[in-house]
Amino acid sequence: MPTFAMKNKIFSLIEQYDSIILFRHVLPDMDALGSQFGLAYWLKKTYPQKQIYVTGSANALSNELQLSFDTIADDTYTRSLGILLDASTANRVDDENYKLCDFTIRIDHHVKTESFCDLEWIDEKASATCEMLGLLLMEKDCSKEAAQMLYQGLVADNVRFTTTSVRKETFQAAGFLFEKGADVVQADRINFSSTLEDFQYETMIRNKAKVSQKCMTAIMETAEYLPLMKTFAKAKEMVYALSGVSSIEIWALFTRMEDGVHYSASLRSKTIDIRDIAQAFHGGGHACACGIKNLTIEQVHEITDQLAKRSTM
């Protein structure tokens, strides 16, 4: 829950600027897009006289949701308030021009490893950045459109309220968004429905899965995912295909990156903290959900060995 002082600072800064630009991390997931567009919709409805911009590159998810991004002139950045959402590190911000903004605010739920904005509200205990925004806006009027985007991001990041980061405030935020018109059935369909291609690729991942100790991993190559997933960005998100096995404590999906050389890693666990393993390979994230990029195949095998050992602790 934001402190009274933090809420006042954020809303005071929003009031001060006629131009506001919303940023988020690269390769956006639903929490990133939900927080970015949910806040954008709220700002546009609350302050119709202000110029509200949404920046970043499109991906498969944003295209599926029919979301569009703005092209912004350099002089617009310099007179704007920049709000960075769901971005754990500076190098993960999708649009480095945030540095040109007159003032920057960061709202994020990842473990804090660095500071890169003028004002930072970090809540490592929150299950999603969308949860934080739901709590921030609780005493404000919120449109159905904004509530829908925020709710979709909230339930996507905490996987239907099943992660260890779910807390009382999670349900308070969800309840507020529901009261404001969020359609929970629509959110579930958007976040968790599978296409036939998804189903077939999930089956392929499971068929390639290997088990060591209480750890399950799969390594997927470009030729395997492109015919079904079309893009690396979508393929790397399919780590959930390895979840839900009662005897497995840790699972990981390694996906060949677009350069054809390196791999990305999506690491997950039920309750065991695996963040330090990700950090050792220049990755990061949450205690039970981490990501790493630009791994060699040798590093993939090294990480697999470390995860297997950790799975029995």
TrEMBL record:
Domain DDH: 20-153
Entry's EC annotation: 3.1.-.-
UniProt entry keywords in alphabetical sequence: Hydrolase
Keyword Hydrolase assigned: yes
Keyword Acyltransferase: no
DHHA1 domain: residues covered: 235-307
One Pfam family linked to the record: DHHA1
SUPFAM superfamilies recorded: DHH phosphoesterases
A molecular function (GO) term: nucleic acid binding
Top-tier EC class: hydrolase
PANTHER family according to UniProt: BIFUNCTIONAL OLIGORIBONUCLEASE AND PAP PHOSPHATASE NRNA
Listed name of the protein: DHH subfamily 1 protein
